[in-house]
Structure formats: structure tokens, C-alpha cells
Amino acid sequence: MSAWRPITALSFPQIKALQDRKLRHFVNTHVYPFSPYYRKLFDDNKINPAHIRSAADLKHLPFTSKLDLVAKDNPLRYMDFILHPDQEKIRKFWPKDKVVLAALKSLWMGNAAFKAALGKEYRPIFMTFTTGTTNSPVPFTYSRYDIDNLKISGSRMVSLFDVKHSERIMNIFPYAPHLAFWQTFFGALESGIFALSTGGGKVMGTEGNLTAMMRSKPSVVLGVPSYIYHMVRFAQDRDYDLSFIKKIVLGASKVTVGYKQKLATMLAACGVKDVLIFGTYGFTEARTAWAECPTECHLSSGYHLYPDKEIFEVIDPATGAVKGEGEDGELVYTSIDSRASVVLRYRTGDLVKGGITHGPCPYCGRMALRMSSDISRLSDVKDLNLSKIKGVLVNMDHFAGVLNDIAEIDEWQIEIRKHNNDPYDSDELVVYVTPKKDINEATFPDFLKDKLMGATELAPNEIKFVPLPEMLKRLEIETSNKEKRILDTRPKV
Ligand SMILES: [Zn+2]
């Protein structure tokens, strides 16, 4: 395991120095020589890789975006981002002393053994996809080296959550080539902690997951917010005693304070006292995830970053200008220690409020850089935000935030439809709501309309109450890896 403790004790200038050194080495020894995409990018833009000496020099490099990863006419475009080393490139691009060292190594080990070692470090052996429900998925590959990194980040999160060897983990993330499941799987493996990975609702069903849970009595449960919520409600309705749960870790979706509080209240009804709920953030292109440390439910420590593995910039999404500490903007990711699929200055499209801060974490004292957990994700933006309703662009993320936070709402779904299902008629917005018990059905629609109006300047045309079983079917919560929170049923013209 890579030493995490010394890194979390570094001062900010020490972190900067470490990142600059690693970036310099990474660009000149691995990326420029072996990445077909980036060598061309550097050459086309007449950038000498030796001039990238520090994180501040990154601004000379053009951004990489999702559009660069997918090319309509070339489904194998993602392969241009994979490092391809060979002896010829080593001789051509590495500095003389390193070439001599490599030659000596090759002599010492034998050419075949040297090639095998190179293959082990660089050869892709594993893959995860982006989880977007639209667009074609972008595959990201891992070599053995990257799997080791995945284990390292996983074990760092386990230590952030302060999970002891005597504790047990239950991994309810959907079993799929998606980061969350494997990050959890490898993190537990590396930390030497018992983990039961059920594959989620689609694989084992909610009853099956709960039976497994009652048998293994995990103190740590990880999964996507909507499914964990569904499982706890299922347990509450059947009077399960879940008092063994101490920590809930949520991934792959935005988590609001209101959601955390709702979940904590439901867990309390199942006998869970003082539960700690952690949010995490990760994305396919980074092949890693970051996490919050323990705080009370209404607080967030922000995500603790790995300054020895990556550099994050926060930029103005309109101008591309790099922002300062704690400022809002779009997150841009640069790897400084990976193999196989590699991206530099990757525009995530995710917007962070409160940016990145340094200095000791007020909750755990670690010095690692922290990123605000108030992030609007690209997947949300892509799938939801850019819905054009009634001719105006509507931020559906705001709708989701409001609906998730209202204590009286158990489940919800939004439908965007056309009046009379006529593609040329006006758009309509319908909110389906499964309320918690004891709400006033006569006054609730007006209350909800006001709330949504305040956040989005758009009032729904209709609010419909739906019983829970019907809502679960509508959402496909048990049958799909990602619930159908927003339905666009407008006929395509
Ligand atoms: Zn902390």
C-alpha cells in the first residue's frame, strides 16, 4: 500500500513541489513518448514537453474533452489515449542516462524478462465504462499498475471512513463494468477487510440483499443513494433491526444534506444510532474515487484528494481561465501517476461550488487538498439539465435538489411530455410524487409548486400522487442499474 499518512501530513508548498516533480516526470517519461494522442497534440501545438515543469505550466496545454475521446467515424479512438511503449520509442524519447539504465536492465534481466516487466506495467488488462445513459460509452483501460492505484485509492477511503479490521463491508453497487463496484471491491481487498459484494438490486433483488445483510451484519454499507434509500425503506416497512449499521457510503450520484437527513431518520427507525453518511466522487476517466471523512449529517468535509496521483484545476467554463483557491468553476483533471488510458487537462464538465481548498481538514486534520462536495455532475447535466421545456433551458438538477430535500416526499419522478402528445404542441411538466404518510394532499401541491418555482422559475403543469409500488415500477429501481428519475416522453419529430 502506498504510504497515505505521510502524504496527508505534507504542507501545501510540499504538496505543490511533489505534484510539479511528478507531473514533469509523467509527461516526459510516459505521456509524450508513449501516448499517440498526446504526442500529436504536443507536436501540433508546438509544445515542448520539457517546458511542462510545474502545474502552473499546464495552462499551455489544450484541454481534452469527452468529444476528443469519442470520434463518430472511429470507434477505436479511445485507443489513442492508451500508452504504447516499445524499445524504439524508449531509445528515441527517453534521456540518455535512462536509456542506458533501461538497456542495462534489459541485459541484466534478459530481453524477454525486460519486455515482460514493461508489459506488466503498461498492458491494459481491465476496463470500466462511463455510466451515461445517453451517448456511446467511453471505455477506460487499466494495467496492473492502475489496478494497484485502484487498490491504493480504495484503501485510502477505507482509512478515511475509519473502518477497522473487525468490521464487515457490504458492497451494493451495481455489478457492472463501472468504477463504483470495482473501486469498493479492490479497496476492501487491499485493506484486508471482509466484503460481501452482492451486485445490487438487479442481481439479487431487494429481499435477497436484505437477507444477505441480516446474515453478514455489515457495519459499513456502500451503494447508490436511490437504491440504499429503497432498501432501508423496505427494511423499515418490515420492521427489520439494522442496528449493526454504523456507516453508509454513497456513490455515483449527488447527495444533498436533505437526503442524508432523510436517510438517517429512516435508519433511526430501524434501530441505527448515530449513523455516519459519506458522499464520494469519482469518474471513469480518473479511474479512482475520492471521499468525505466522518462528520455529522448536515456537514460535509469535502472530498479528500490524492495530490500524489492527480492535479485538479478549477476553470472558468466560458473562458478556460484557471481559478484560485476556493473559487467556483469546472473541474479539470490531470493524471500524474498512471498507465494504460491516460488523460491530461480533462474537462469533466462537472461544476464545483466552493472549489478546492488546502490547509488541515477541520474534521480529521489531514492536510490533503479537499474539493467541495457541492458538484453538479456532467452526467446529470447531459441527461437532465439541458432539457428544453416550453422553449427555455431548464436546469433539471435544481428540480432534483428540491425534490430530494423535501422531507414529506418519499419518491418522485418527473415527466416531460407534449400537450396531447402532439410534437408541435407545447411542453408540459408533470411531477409524480409518492408522499410520506400524514401529508395534507389538498395543500401539498401548492406548497410543492411554490418550492419548484422558487428554485427553477418553472411551475409544473400537474402534480400527481402515485402509490409506492407503482412508483417503484415507474422508476425501475429494482430492475435497472440507474433509476429513471426524469422521463422525457416527448415524441421525436
Ligand atoms: Zn477530513
Write the layout of secondary structure elements.
Elements: H1 12-34, H2 36-44, H3 66-69, H4 87-93, H5 96-109, H6 111-122, E1 126-129, E2 139-142, H7 144-160, E3 168-171, H8 179-191, E4 194-197, H9 201-216, E5 220-223, H10 225-237, E6 247-250, H11 257-269, E7 276-283, E8 288-291, E9 303-304, E10 310-315, E11 329-335, E12 346-352, E13 356-357, E14 370-371, E15 375-376, H12 378-385, E16 387-389, E17 392-394, H13 396-405, E18 409-418, E19 427-435, H14 444-456, E20 462-465, H15 468-475, E21 486-488
Parallel strand pairs: 3-4, 3-5, 5-6, 6-7, 18-21, 19-20
Antiparallel strand pairs: 1-2, 7-8, 9-14, 10-11, 11-12, 12-15, 13-14, 16-17, 18-19
The protein binds zinc ion.
Zinc ion binds next to loops.
Q: Features of this protein?
A:
493 residues, Rossmann fold, GMP Synthetase, Chain A, domain 3, six-stranded mixed beta sheet, four-stranded antiparallel beta sheet, 21 strands
